[in-house]
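Design a sequence for this backbone.
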């Protein structure tokens, strides 16, 4: 989808180097042929200019020998600001989990939300994620943290029926206000996020769709996460959620539905027909014992675009997309008794090129190719958990070995956010201290 990310960035108050040469890395390109090349990458401004032996100098030269150079990972379902609520409700049934997290959430202030968002963005940048899709309220607060850290956020303002929300005023109007104030930004793209069928009436879905259409963005929503959700909805309406949303004309091309665990094959075909992508969240589904397994092989076979999401830090409890790739692969192998299901290359696709396609941003993200945005991660393969890394096993190591601790540099939009393991954009110590203080105070209030 063309949008604010395609426009040239405004100067952001800090010097931007006009060119960066990343030399001699093992480049996992994720191009159409999935080539892995020992070569250079030249970044000019915010975009990749050349992939290959570069015969000229640049303003900044980065030695990537002994490293993998890869496209930044894309997390397609998160609640980033819940990072301060990490591990607040572990090893309890879903009802207990929801009761505990809602109770804490209702006590949160904007300062807590900002601290959580900054913490979550740091965690993502440190673990190789350059873009994420979020679902929450107070996205205006989250947007500031996203821009300060300097990663990309597709920020979905939660829209739900008045009777279920803690938001002040009408959530649809709040979402509209957020979009108006944030469209055209470089790193933040506003999205409409009807929370799920259990809190959104047909009328709310209709208003959400109208707003998304009018503002040329998409809708992001939870969908068929648990059997309970599906059965309760069926009791009320006589239809399964996807059937109902298809019949009411809500589903639309470009949407991203999170979870999609409890789907019939008929519903998978409906999503494919409507052009709705699914953000698969394997860790969250396993940890909350959602039961069942999202039917990934059937989604692939029917042409549903699948991407991956971590979900929030209270149901995961990390925002590490390398782990999400690994669990996505292992979960379906174990379930199908078939080690060939979701191979390493496909798992990496889900977090890069397929995620970019789901976001309607294939032109900009997902691979290291000339013309793409310079969202690049450099993984130091001299660590014990990444040794030996070769051209042949690089993709396997990124999915199955221990890459997240080995992330050395993270570049977003041509600018280093993390360089030689140090944050360039923010003071990491201060962000962590603030998050600890806010988390302790929040829990004390609850
Ligand atoms: Zn969620």
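Sequence:
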């Amino acid at each position: 989808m063309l949008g604010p990310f395609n426009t040239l960035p405004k100067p952001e108050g800090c010097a931007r180097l006009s060119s960066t040469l990343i030399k001699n890395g093992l480049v996992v390109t994720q191009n159409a042929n999935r080539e892995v090349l020992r070569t250079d990458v030249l970044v000019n401004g915010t975009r990749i200019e050349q992939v290959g032996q570069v015969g000229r100098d640049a303003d900044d030269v980065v030695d990537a020998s002994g490293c993998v150079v890869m496209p930044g990972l894309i997390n397609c379902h998160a609640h980033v600001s819940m990072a301060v609520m990490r591990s607040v409700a572990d090893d309890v049934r879903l009802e207990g989990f929801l009761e505990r997290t809602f109770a804490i959430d209702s006590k949160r202030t904007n300062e807590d939300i900002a601290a959580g968002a900054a913490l979550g963005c740091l965690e993502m940048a440190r673990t190789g994620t350059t873009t994420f899709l979020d679902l929450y309220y107070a996205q205006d607060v989250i947007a500031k943290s996203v821009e300060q850290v300097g990663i990309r956020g597709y920020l979905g303002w939660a829209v739900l029926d008045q009777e279920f929300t803690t938001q002040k005023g009408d959530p649809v109007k709040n979402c509209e206000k957020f979009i108006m104030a944030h469209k055209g930004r470089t790193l933040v793209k506003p999205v409409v996020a009807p929370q799920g069928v259990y809190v959104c009436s047909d009328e709310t879905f209709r208003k959400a769709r109208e707003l998304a259409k009018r503002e040329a963005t998409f809708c992001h929503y939870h969908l068929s996460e648990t059997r309970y959700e599906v059965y309760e909805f069926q009791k009320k309406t006589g239809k399964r959620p996807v059937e109902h949303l298809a019949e009411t004309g809500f589903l639309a091309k470009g949407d991203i539905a999170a979870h999609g665990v409890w789907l019939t094959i008929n519903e998978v075909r409906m999503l494919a027909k409507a052009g709705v992508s699914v953000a698969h969240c394997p860790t969250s589904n396993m940890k909350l014992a959602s039961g069942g397994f999202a039917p990934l092989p059937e989604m692939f076979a029917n042409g549903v675009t699948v991407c991956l999401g971590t979900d929030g830090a209270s149901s995961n409890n990390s925002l590490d997309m390398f782990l999400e790739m690994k669990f996505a692969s292992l979960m379906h192998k174990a379930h199908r008794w078939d080690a060939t299901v979701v191979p390493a290359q496909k798992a990496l696709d889900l977090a890069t090129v397929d995620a970019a396609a789901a976001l309607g941003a294939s032109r900009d993200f997902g691979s290291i190719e000339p013309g793409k945005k310079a969202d690049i991660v450099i993984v130091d393969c001299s660590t014990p958990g990444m040794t030996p890394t070769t051209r042949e096993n690089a993709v396997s190591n990124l999915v199955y070995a221990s890459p997240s601790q080995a992330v050395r540099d993270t570049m977003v939009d041509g600018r280093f956010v993390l360089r030689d393991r140090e944050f360039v954009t923010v003071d990491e110590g201060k962000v962590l201290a603030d998050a600890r203080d806010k988390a302790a105070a929040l829990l004390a209030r609850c």
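The longest helix spans residues 428-445.
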